[in-house]
Amino acid sequence: MKREFHSRTKAFACLLTMCAGFSDAYTFICRGGTLAAGQTGNVVFLSVGLIGQQISDVEVKLATMLAFMLGIFLMTVLRRLIDNSVLSTLVPYILTTLVTGFLPASVKNVFIVPFFGLSLGIVATSFGEVGSYAYNHSFMTGNLKKTMVAYGNFVREKEKKFLWEAIFMTCLIGSFVFGAIFSTYLIQFYGLETIWLVSIILTIFLIYRAIQYFEVFHFNRRHE
User: Fold this and answer.
1) Partner of 119 for a Cys bridge, out of 11, 85, 93, 102, CB 3.0 to 4.6 A?
2) Rounded to two decimals, what is the model's pTM?
3) Residues 6+ apart with CB under 8 A from 67
4) Contact status, residue 165 vs residue 171, Cβ threshold 8 Å
5) What pLDDT, in 10s, does the model give residues 173-204?
6) How far apart, in whole angstroms, are the C-alpha atoms of residue 181 and residue 176?
7) How far apart are CA 67 and CA 16, in angstroms?
8) Is residue 199 a contact partner of residue 94, using CB atoms and an 8 Å limit?
């Protein structure tokens, strides 16, 4: 029950990956062309901008990258303190998406997007394994590689464990793409408030897990 409550499930991995794709599309379209989760893309955009002397948004991309790195660093240092409450690491991400939806376009992106980077760095460090599968909810390059390696191993070895891994990785990639497409679509109607969907989804998930935890707790108390 403890492992289940800690959300080491394939469904939750896909949910987080969908949220990352959703956030990437949102910050890219609505918040200055910077990716919230995809730091590889930010490095490319930053490099192209510097060479082309388009430095107006350099500080946003650089600050987002540094914030993402800081999130990973903090989670690495504090891992022992949050091992038993790993779901709490979703709170900064929820708060970031919630507050951002209230902020008008006049607020400078350098005061917004880095908080996405920080919170997503925390989440990426907290959630990266499902059983024997390692994944990354932010960077699709590694997931693409693992997908094709798993399919290749299945063709060569004919073992179903490789097929299940390949299917899981394919679902992750599909979740990211769906999140990005869905975000782009909703932005046409809801604009800056679109990002609230991420905070709503993750808040509902936390409430569901809390209810599940207390049900298990009371069940165990009644049968002691």
Assistant:
1) 93
2) 0.91
3) 114, 115, 116, 117, 118, 121
4) no
5) 999 999 999 999 999 999 999 999 999 999 99
6) 9
7) 19
8) yes
